[in-house]
Amino acid sequence: MQQMSHLVLCLLAFSASVLAAPFGPGSGLLPSGNLRTVDNGGPYDLTALNTQAAHVKAAIAARGEVTDKDIIDFLTNVECVEGRFDTYGTQGKDFTNDLLMGGPTSKGFAKANLSPRTRTLLEEVALSEQGHALFTRQAGSTIPCPYVDYDAGFNGILAAAYGLAPGETIEKLFGKKWDPYVNDATFTISMLTLEELGATGNKGLASIMTNPILQDGLSGLACTATAFAAIERSILFDLRDEIVPPTNETVAQVFARISAYRDSMDGPQFDDQGLLNTDARMIAVPESFVNNIPTDVRGLSFARTPQMNLNILMLGAQNGKGGFFPKGIQGKINTPVGFDKLAEATEDWTGKTEAEQMSVKQLGEIPPPITQEGPSSVPGMKSLTQDFSGPQEDETYLTRGYETPSKGYFRSSVDQALDTLRQALYKNPFYKAPEEVVKEL
Q: Signal sequence: where (predicted)?
Protein backbone atom coordinates (compact mmCIF):
# COMPACT_ATOMS: atom_id res chain seq x y z
CA MET A 1 0.00 0.00 0.00
CA GLN A 2 2.89 2.35 0.80
CA GLN A 3 4.35 1.71 -2.67
CA MET A 4 1.02 2.60 -4.28
CA SER A 5 0.82 5.81 -2.23
CA HIS A 6 4.26 6.86 -3.43
CA LEU A 7 3.23 6.16 -7.01
CA VAL A 8 0.10 8.29 -6.70
CA LEU A 9 2.03 11.21 -5.21
CA CYS A 10 4.60 11.13 -7.99
CA LEU A 11 1.91 10.98 -10.65
CA LEU A 12 0.04 13.91 -9.14
CA ALA A 13 3.27 15.89 -9.18
CA PHE A 14 3.41 15.41 -12.91
CA SER A 15 -0.27 16.02 -13.65
CA ALA A 16 -0.27 12.50 -14.99
CA SER A 17 -3.94 11.71 -15.36
CA VAL A 18 -3.90 8.29 -16.90
CA LEU A 19 -6.22 7.44 -19.74
CA ALA A 20 -7.82 4.46 -18.06
CA ALA A 21 -11.07 3.36 -16.52
CA PRO A 22 -12.17 5.28 -13.41
CA PHE A 23 -10.83 3.84 -10.18
CA GLY A 24 -13.42 2.45 -7.81
CA PRO A 25 -12.71 1.46 -4.22
CA GLY A 26 -12.22 -2.27 -3.96
CA SER A 27 -11.75 -2.84 -7.69
CA GLY A 28 -8.14 -3.98 -7.23
CA LEU A 29 -6.70 -1.52 -9.75
CA LEU A 30 -3.99 0.94 -8.89
CA PRO A 31 -5.60 4.34 -8.21
CA SER A 32 -5.01 5.92 -11.60
CA GLY A 33 -7.83 6.94 -13.89
CA ASN A 34 -8.88 9.13 -16.77
CA LEU A 35 -9.81 12.78 -16.44
CA ARG A 36 -13.35 11.95 -15.39
CA THR A 37 -12.06 10.16 -12.31
CA VAL A 38 -12.88 11.66 -8.93
CA ASP A 39 -12.24 10.31 -5.48
CA ASN A 40 -14.56 10.54 -2.50
CA GLY A 41 -13.40 14.07 -1.73
CA GLY A 42 -14.28 15.48 -5.15
CA PRO A 43 -15.24 16.94 -7.46
CA TYR A 44 -12.61 19.66 -7.19
CA ASP A 45 -12.35 23.14 -8.68
CA LEU A 46 -9.22 23.11 -10.84
CA THR A 47 -10.09 26.07 -13.05
CA ALA A 48 -7.01 28.04 -11.93
CA LEU A 49 -4.66 25.31 -13.14
CA ASN A 50 -4.84 26.47 -16.75
CA THR A 51 -1.32 25.34 -17.70
CA GLN A 52 -1.92 21.83 -16.44
CA ALA A 53 -5.32 21.66 -18.15
CA ALA A 54 -3.68 22.62 -21.45
CA HIS A 55 -1.05 19.91 -20.97
CA VAL A 56 -3.71 17.25 -20.46
CA LYS A 57 -5.88 18.45 -23.33
CA ALA A 58 -2.88 18.21 -25.64
CA ALA A 59 -2.05 14.75 -24.27
CA ILE A 60 -5.57 13.49 -24.95
CA ALA A 61 -5.41 14.78 -28.51
CA ALA A 62 -1.97 13.23 -29.02
CA ARG A 63 -2.90 9.83 -27.66
CA GLY A 64 -5.07 8.78 -30.60
CA GLU A 65 -4.88 5.04 -31.18
CA VAL A 66 -1.31 4.50 -30.01
CA THR A 67 -0.41 1.87 -27.44
CA ASP A 68 2.00 2.00 -24.53
CA LYS A 69 4.46 0.06 -26.71
CA ASP A 70 4.20 2.79 -29.38
CA ILE A 71 5.03 5.38 -26.74
CA ILE A 72 8.08 3.42 -25.58
CA ASP A 73 9.27 3.08 -29.19
CA PHE A 74 8.93 6.84 -29.66
CA LEU A 75 10.88 7.36 -26.47
CA THR A 76 13.67 5.13 -27.83
CA ASN A 77 14.10 7.48 -30.79
CA VAL A 78 14.43 10.63 -28.72
CA GLU A 79 16.56 9.09 -25.97
CA CYS A 80 18.98 7.85 -28.64
CA VAL A 81 19.24 11.38 -30.05
CA GLU A 82 20.01 12.93 -26.67
CA GLY A 83 22.12 10.17 -25.18
CA ARG A 84 24.38 9.50 -28.14
CA PHE A 85 25.19 13.20 -28.54
CA ASP A 86 25.93 13.58 -24.83
CA THR A 87 28.02 10.40 -24.69
CA TYR A 88 30.17 11.16 -27.71
CA GLY A 89 30.64 14.79 -26.68
CA THR A 90 31.82 13.93 -23.17
CA GLN A 91 33.49 10.54 -23.65
CA GLY A 92 34.33 10.36 -27.35
CA LYS A 93 32.41 7.10 -27.80
CA ASP A 94 28.98 5.93 -28.95
CA PHE A 95 26.33 3.85 -27.19
CA THR A 96 27.05 0.19 -26.57
CA ASN A 97 25.47 -2.32 -28.95
CA ASP A 98 23.01 -3.27 -26.22
CA LEU A 99 21.46 0.17 -26.55
CA LEU A 100 22.00 0.79 -30.28
CA MET A 101 20.41 -2.53 -31.29
CA GLY A 102 21.88 -2.32 -34.77
CA GLY A 103 21.29 1.38 -35.26
CA PRO A 104 23.25 3.03 -38.10
CA THR A 105 26.28 5.27 -37.69
CA SER A 106 25.09 8.85 -37.37
CA LYS A 107 26.58 12.10 -38.68
CA GLY A 108 28.15 14.95 -36.76
CA PHE A 109 29.78 13.21 -33.79
CA ALA A 110 32.92 14.57 -32.09
CA LYS A 111 34.40 14.79 -28.61
CA ALA A 112 33.85 18.27 -27.22
CA ASN A 113 36.62 20.58 -26.05
CA LEU A 114 35.46 20.92 -22.45
CA SER A 115 37.01 22.19 -19.25
CA PRO A 116 37.59 19.45 -16.64
CA ARG A 117 34.80 20.70 -14.38
CA THR A 118 32.19 20.95 -17.15
CA ARG A 119 33.16 17.57 -18.58
CA THR A 120 32.73 15.98 -15.16
CA LEU A 121 29.26 17.41 -14.64
CA LEU A 122 28.05 16.61 -18.13
CA GLU A 123 29.50 13.09 -18.21
CA GLU A 124 27.15 12.16 -15.38
CA VAL A 125 24.28 13.49 -17.47
CA ALA A 126 25.48 11.46 -20.46
CA LEU A 127 25.58 8.23 -18.46
CA SER A 128 22.11 8.90 -17.08
CA GLU A 129 20.84 9.50 -20.62
CA GLN A 130 22.25 6.09 -21.52
CA GLY A 131 20.22 4.82 -18.59
CA HIS A 132 17.11 6.39 -20.11
CA ALA A 133 17.74 4.47 -23.32
CA LEU A 134 18.27 1.35 -21.23
CA PHE A 135 14.83 1.90 -19.68
CA THR A 136 13.20 1.85 -23.12
CA ARG A 137 15.03 -1.39 -23.97
CA GLN A 138 14.04 -3.05 -20.72
CA ALA A 139 10.47 -1.82 -21.27
CA GLY A 140 10.35 -3.80 -24.52
CA SER A 141 11.42 -1.50 -27.36
CA THR A 142 13.46 -3.37 -29.98
CA ILE A 143 13.65 -0.77 -32.75
CA PRO A 144 17.23 0.34 -33.53
CA CYS A 145 18.47 3.81 -32.72
CA PRO A 146 17.67 6.05 -35.71
CA TYR A 147 20.06 7.71 -38.13
CA VAL A 148 20.69 11.22 -36.81
CA ASP A 149 22.34 14.16 -38.58
CA TYR A 150 23.47 16.38 -35.72
CA ASP A 151 25.13 18.85 -38.07
CA ALA A 152 21.90 19.43 -40.01
CA GLY A 153 19.78 19.42 -36.86
CA PHE A 154 21.69 21.96 -34.82
CA ASN A 155 22.45 24.19 -37.79
CA GLY A 156 18.82 24.06 -38.85
CA ILE A 157 17.66 25.16 -35.40
CA LEU A 158 20.25 27.94 -35.20
CA ALA A 159 19.36 29.15 -38.70
CA ALA A 160 15.67 29.29 -37.82
CA ALA A 161 16.49 30.97 -34.51
CA TYR A 162 18.30 33.72 -36.42
CA GLY A 163 15.48 34.11 -38.93
CA LEU A 164 17.25 32.51 -41.89
CA ALA A 165 15.53 30.58 -44.66
CA PRO A 166 15.33 26.76 -44.70
CA GLY A 167 18.58 25.29 -46.00
CA GLU A 168 20.67 28.24 -44.85
CA THR A 169 23.03 28.21 -41.87
CA ILE A 170 24.44 30.91 -39.63
CA GLU A 171 27.56 30.77 -41.82
CA LYS A 172 25.67 33.35 -43.90
CA LEU A 173 25.78 35.75 -40.95
CA PHE A 174 29.01 34.87 -39.16
CA GLY A 175 31.26 33.13 -41.71
CA LYS A 176 31.10 29.72 -39.98
CA LYS A 177 28.47 27.11 -39.23
CA TRP A 178 27.47 26.11 -35.72
CA ASP A 179 29.93 23.67 -34.15
CA PRO A 180 28.64 22.18 -30.89
CA TYR A 181 32.05 20.90 -29.85
CA VAL A 182 34.10 24.13 -29.68
CA ASN A 183 33.95 24.83 -25.95
CA ASP A 184 31.89 24.65 -22.76
CA ALA A 185 29.38 27.20 -24.02
CA THR A 186 28.66 25.74 -27.46
CA PHE A 187 28.39 22.16 -26.21
CA THR A 188 26.22 22.96 -23.19
CA ILE A 189 23.91 25.14 -25.30
CA SER A 190 23.54 22.27 -27.77
CA MET A 191 23.01 19.74 -24.99
CA LEU A 192 20.35 21.91 -23.33
CA THR A 193 18.59 22.45 -26.65
CA LEU A 194 17.86 18.70 -26.70
CA GLU A 195 17.66 18.14 -22.95
CA GLU A 196 14.61 20.28 -22.36
CA LEU A 197 12.75 18.50 -25.11
CA GLY A 198 13.36 15.36 -23.08
CA ALA A 199 12.29 16.97 -19.80
CA THR A 200 9.04 18.39 -21.17
CA GLY A 201 8.42 15.44 -23.47
CA ASN A 202 8.78 12.84 -20.73
CA LYS A 203 6.28 14.70 -18.59
CA GLY A 204 3.89 14.85 -21.53
CA LEU A 205 4.28 11.13 -22.16
CA ALA A 206 3.46 10.32 -18.54
CA SER A 207 0.03 11.82 -19.20
CA ILE A 208 -0.82 9.29 -21.91
CA MET A 209 0.78 6.11 -20.57
CA THR A 210 -1.70 3.60 -19.13
CA ASN A 211 0.54 0.97 -17.53
CA PRO A 212 1.38 2.11 -13.98
CA ILE A 213 4.87 0.58 -13.96
CA LEU A 214 5.80 2.28 -17.23
CA GLN A 215 4.16 5.47 -15.99
CA ASP A 216 6.29 5.39 -12.86
CA GLY A 217 9.37 5.00 -15.08
CA LEU A 218 8.35 7.94 -17.25
CA SER A 219 7.83 10.10 -14.19
CA GLY A 220 11.37 9.19 -13.17
CA LEU A 221 12.67 10.16 -16.61
CA ALA A 222 10.95 13.53 -16.36
CA CYS A 223 12.40 14.14 -12.88
CA THR A 224 15.96 13.37 -13.90
CA ALA A 225 15.79 15.16 -17.26
CA THR A 226 14.62 18.30 -15.46
CA ALA A 227 17.56 17.95 -13.07
CA PHE A 228 19.98 17.50 -16.00
CA ALA A 229 18.60 20.65 -17.63
CA ALA A 230 19.06 22.59 -14.38
CA ILE A 231 22.72 21.53 -14.26
CA GLU A 232 23.21 22.68 -17.84
CA ARG A 233 21.39 25.96 -17.24
CA SER A 234 23.55 26.57 -14.17
CA ILE A 235 26.70 26.10 -16.25
CA LEU A 236 25.36 28.49 -18.87
CA PHE A 237 24.23 31.05 -16.29
CA ASP A 238 27.84 31.31 -15.11
CA LEU A 239 28.89 31.82 -18.75
CA ARG A 240 25.91 34.02 -19.67
CA ASP A 241 27.97 37.06 -20.76
CA GLU A 242 30.55 35.06 -22.72
CA ILE A 243 30.54 35.51 -26.51
CA VAL A 244 29.58 32.29 -28.30
CA PRO A 245 31.53 31.39 -31.45
CA PRO A 246 30.94 31.92 -34.30
CA THR A 247 28.26 34.47 -33.31
CA ASN A 248 28.85 37.94 -31.93
CA GLU A 249 26.26 37.37 -29.20
CA THR A 250 26.44 36.19 -25.61
CA VAL A 251 25.41 32.82 -24.22
CA ALA A 252 22.21 34.35 -22.83
CA GLN A 253 21.37 35.95 -26.18
CA VAL A 254 22.00 32.84 -28.27
CA PHE A 255 19.95 30.65 -25.99
CA ALA A 256 17.15 33.23 -25.91
CA ARG A 257 16.88 32.77 -29.69
CA ILE A 258 16.83 28.97 -29.38
CA SER A 259 14.17 29.12 -26.67
CA ALA A 260 12.00 31.37 -28.84
CA TYR A 261 12.41 28.97 -31.78
CA ARG A 262 11.31 25.97 -29.71
CA ASP A 263 8.36 27.89 -28.34
CA SER A 264 7.27 28.91 -31.83
CA MET A 265 7.29 25.33 -33.11
CA ASP A 266 5.11 23.54 -30.56
CA GLY A 267 1.80 25.35 -30.80
CA PRO A 268 0.34 28.63 -29.51
CA GLN A 269 1.04 28.07 -25.81
CA PHE A 270 3.94 29.71 -23.96
CA ASP A 271 6.11 26.89 -22.60
CA ASP A 272 9.76 27.81 -23.07
CA GLN A 273 12.09 30.26 -21.36
CA GLY A 274 15.60 31.64 -21.66
CA LEU A 275 18.44 31.58 -19.14
CA LEU A 276 17.02 34.79 -17.65
CA ASN A 277 13.36 35.49 -16.92
CA THR A 278 11.85 38.90 -16.14
CA ASP A 279 8.22 37.88 -16.77
CA ALA A 280 6.29 37.88 -13.46
CA ARG A 281 3.66 35.57 -14.94
CA MET A 282 6.34 32.94 -14.34
CA ILE A 283 8.93 32.73 -11.54
CA ALA A 284 11.00 35.94 -11.77
CA VAL A 285 13.93 36.20 -9.33
CA PRO A 286 14.58 39.83 -8.28
CA GLU A 287 17.78 41.44 -9.60
CA SER A 288 19.53 38.34 -10.99
CA PHE A 289 16.56 36.96 -13.03
CA VAL A 290 18.27 33.55 -12.87
CA ASN A 291 16.12 30.87 -14.49
CA ASN A 292 17.72 27.47 -13.92
CA ILE A 293 14.35 25.71 -13.64
CA PRO A 294 11.81 27.13 -16.13
CA THR A 295 8.28 26.81 -14.75
CA ASP A 296 4.90 28.48 -14.62
CA VAL A 297 4.05 30.77 -11.70
CA ARG A 298 3.21 27.72 -9.57
CA GLY A 299 6.75 26.39 -9.95
CA LEU A 300 5.51 23.52 -12.14
CA SER A 301 7.44 22.37 -15.20
CA PHE A 302 5.99 22.40 -18.71
CA ALA A 303 4.97 19.43 -20.85
CA ARG A 304 5.05 18.65 -24.56
CA THR A 305 3.44 15.94 -26.65
CA PRO A 306 5.51 13.67 -28.93
CA GLN A 307 4.22 15.59 -31.96
CA MET A 308 5.34 18.91 -30.49
CA ASN A 309 8.86 17.61 -29.92
CA LEU A 310 9.03 16.07 -33.39
CA ASN A 311 7.99 19.38 -34.95
CA ILE A 312 10.96 21.02 -33.24
CA LEU A 313 13.46 18.24 -34.02
CA MET A 314 12.27 17.83 -37.63
CA LEU A 315 12.25 21.59 -38.24
CA GLY A 316 8.56 21.52 -39.08
CA ALA A 317 8.75 18.76 -41.72
CA GLN A 318 5.23 17.31 -41.60
CA ASN A 319 6.26 14.25 -43.62
CA GLY A 320 8.52 13.17 -40.75
CA LYS A 321 11.84 13.62 -42.55
CA GLY A 322 13.92 16.66 -41.68
CA GLY A 323 16.26 18.29 -39.20
CA PHE A 324 17.89 15.71 -36.96
CA PHE A 325 15.95 12.92 -38.72
CA PRO A 326 16.55 13.26 -42.50
CA LYS A 327 15.59 9.59 -42.98
CA GLY A 328 12.70 9.63 -40.52
CA ILE A 329 12.20 7.41 -37.48
CA GLN A 330 10.65 4.01 -36.85
CA GLY A 331 7.51 3.43 -34.84
CA LYS A 332 3.90 4.49 -35.06
CA ILE A 333 4.60 8.00 -33.70
CA ASN A 334 6.82 9.27 -36.50
CA THR A 335 5.57 12.66 -37.75
CA PRO A 336 4.71 16.03 -36.16
CA VAL A 337 1.18 15.98 -37.63
CA GLY A 338 -1.22 17.25 -34.97
CA PHE A 339 1.43 19.07 -32.93
CA ASP A 340 -0.88 22.07 -32.44
CA LYS A 341 -4.03 20.11 -31.70
CA LEU A 342 -5.84 20.25 -28.38
CA ALA A 343 -8.78 18.16 -27.30
CA GLU A 344 -11.98 20.22 -27.03
CA ALA A 345 -12.40 19.51 -23.34
CA THR A 346 -10.79 17.50 -20.60
CA GLU A 347 -13.72 15.08 -20.51
CA ASP A 348 -13.98 14.14 -24.17
CA TRP A 349 -11.59 11.20 -24.37
CA THR A 350 -13.46 8.17 -25.68
CA GLY A 351 -11.02 5.41 -24.88
CA LYS A 352 -11.60 1.80 -23.98
CA THR A 353 -13.94 1.06 -21.12
CA GLU A 354 -11.40 -1.12 -19.37
CA ALA A 355 -7.86 -0.03 -18.71
CA GLU A 356 -4.84 -2.04 -19.83
CA GLN A 357 -3.55 -2.07 -16.28
CA MET A 358 -2.30 -4.81 -14.04
CA SER A 359 -4.21 -5.42 -10.86
CA VAL A 360 -2.45 -5.63 -7.53
CA LYS A 361 -3.01 -9.39 -7.63
CA GLN A 362 -1.43 -9.65 -11.09
CA LEU A 363 1.61 -7.69 -9.95
CA GLY A 364 2.30 -10.37 -7.37
CA GLU A 365 5.49 -10.14 -5.37
CA ILE A 366 7.52 -7.05 -6.17
CA PRO A 367 11.31 -7.60 -6.06
CA PRO A 368 13.02 -5.57 -3.34
CA PRO A 369 15.21 -2.57 -4.24
CA ILE A 370 19.00 -2.86 -4.35
CA THR A 371 20.33 -3.52 -0.85
CA GLN A 372 23.70 -4.30 0.68
CA GLU A 373 22.82 -7.98 0.55
CA GLY A 374 21.47 -7.72 -3.00
CA PRO A 375 22.96 -9.07 -6.24
CA SER A 376 26.51 -8.24 -7.28
CA SER A 377 25.12 -6.78 -10.51
CA VAL A 378 21.77 -5.55 -11.79
CA PRO A 379 20.25 -6.03 -15.27
CA GLY A 380 21.70 -3.59 -17.76
CA MET A 381 24.45 -2.07 -15.62
CA LYS A 382 27.10 -3.24 -18.07
CA SER A 383 25.21 -1.80 -21.03
CA LEU A 384 26.48 1.67 -20.11
CA THR A 385 29.91 3.20 -20.75
CA GLN A 386 30.61 3.68 -17.06
CA ASP A 387 33.33 2.83 -14.55
CA PHE A 388 33.26 -0.49 -12.71
CA SER A 389 36.31 -0.11 -10.47
CA GLY A 390 34.72 1.48 -7.42
CA PRO A 391 33.21 -0.21 -4.36
CA GLN A 392 29.50 -0.92 -4.26
CA GLU A 393 27.29 1.17 -2.01
CA ASP A 394 26.56 0.00 1.51
CA GLU A 395 24.85 1.54 4.50
CA THR A 396 27.84 3.60 5.67
CA TYR A 397 29.07 7.02 4.60
CA LEU A 398 32.49 5.70 3.53
CA THR A 399 31.39 4.60 0.04
CA ARG A 400 29.24 7.68 -0.64
CA GLY A 401 32.00 10.11 -1.56
CA TYR A 402 33.36 10.66 1.96
CA GLU A 403 36.73 9.31 0.89
CA THR A 404 38.16 10.51 -2.42
CA PRO A 405 38.08 7.68 -4.99
CA SER A 406 41.30 6.88 -6.79
CA LYS A 407 39.82 7.84 -10.16
CA GLY A 408 37.92 10.81 -11.48
CA TYR A 409 38.28 14.56 -11.58
CA PHE A 410 38.22 16.37 -8.23
CA ARG A 411 38.70 20.09 -8.01
CA SER A 412 42.05 21.13 -6.61
CA SER A 413 42.64 24.55 -5.08
CA VAL A 414 43.99 25.70 -8.46
CA ASP A 415 40.87 24.40 -10.22
CA GLN A 416 38.65 26.26 -7.77
CA ALA A 417 40.65 29.43 -8.19
CA LEU A 418 40.40 29.17 -11.96
CA ASP A 419 36.65 28.71 -11.71
CA THR A 420 36.42 31.86 -9.61
CA LEU A 421 38.58 33.85 -12.01
CA ARG A 422 37.15 32.53 -15.27
CA GLN A 423 34.22 34.94 -15.34
CA ALA A 424 36.45 37.93 -14.63
CA LEU A 425 39.04 36.94 -17.23
CA TYR A 426 36.90 37.21 -20.32
CA LYS A 427 35.57 40.62 -19.17
CA ASN A 428 38.96 42.00 -18.14
CA PRO A 429 40.68 44.23 -20.75
CA PHE A 430 44.01 43.13 -19.25
CA TYR A 431 43.26 39.49 -20.01
CA LYS A 432 45.93 36.97 -19.14
CA ALA A 433 46.18 33.46 -20.53
CA PRO A 434 45.20 30.65 -18.14
CA GLU A 435 48.80 29.45 -18.06
CA GLU A 436 49.92 32.82 -16.69
CA VAL A 437 47.21 32.77 -14.05
CA VAL A 438 48.27 29.31 -12.91
CA LYS A 439 51.87 30.50 -12.55
CA GLU A 440 50.76 33.47 -10.46
CA LEU A 441 48.69 31.21 -8.21
A: 1-20
DSSP string, 240-253: TTSBPTTSSSBHHH
Could you give phi then psi for residue 282, rounded to 5 degrees? Answer: -115, -170
Selection from 131, 118, 123 nearest residue 80 by Cα? 131
CA 348 vs CA 16, 35, 48, 61, 71: distances in Å: 17, 9, 20, 10, 21
Work out the number of other CB atoms within 10 angstroms of the CB of residue 13: 15
CA–CA distance, 272 with 12 (Å, rounded to integer): 22
**Digitized pLDDT (tens) for each residue of the chain, 441 residues in all:** 444 444 333 444 443 333 333 333 344 433 344 444 445 555 667 778 878 888 888 888 887 788 899 999 999 999 999 999 999 999 999 999 999 999 899 999 999 999 999 999 999 999 999 999 999 999 999 999 999 999 999 999 999 999 999 999 999 999 999 999 999 999 999 999 999 999 999 999 887 888 888 889 999 999 999 999 999 999 999 999 999 999 999 999 999 999 999 999 988 888 899 999 888 888 888 889 999 999 988 888 999 999 999 999 999 999 999 999 999 999 999 999 999 887 655 554 444 444 455 566 666 666 666 666 666 677 788 888 887 776 676 666 666 666 666 554 444 455 555 555 654 554 555 555 555 555 555
Where helices occur in 239-367 by DSSP H, the ranges are: 251-264, 306-313, 360-363
- The backbone torsions φ and ψ at residue 410, rounded to the nearest 5 degrees and listed phi first, read -125, 135
Q: Are 159 and 343 in contact (CB under 8 A)?
A: no
pTM assigned to the model: 0.80
Parse the chain into domains and list their residue ranges: 49-352
In the DSSP assignment, the letter for residue 359 is B
For residues 68 and 75, give the distance between their C-alpha atoms in angstroms, rounded to a whole number.
11
Residue 276 dihedral angles phi and psi, to the nearest 5°: -125, 145
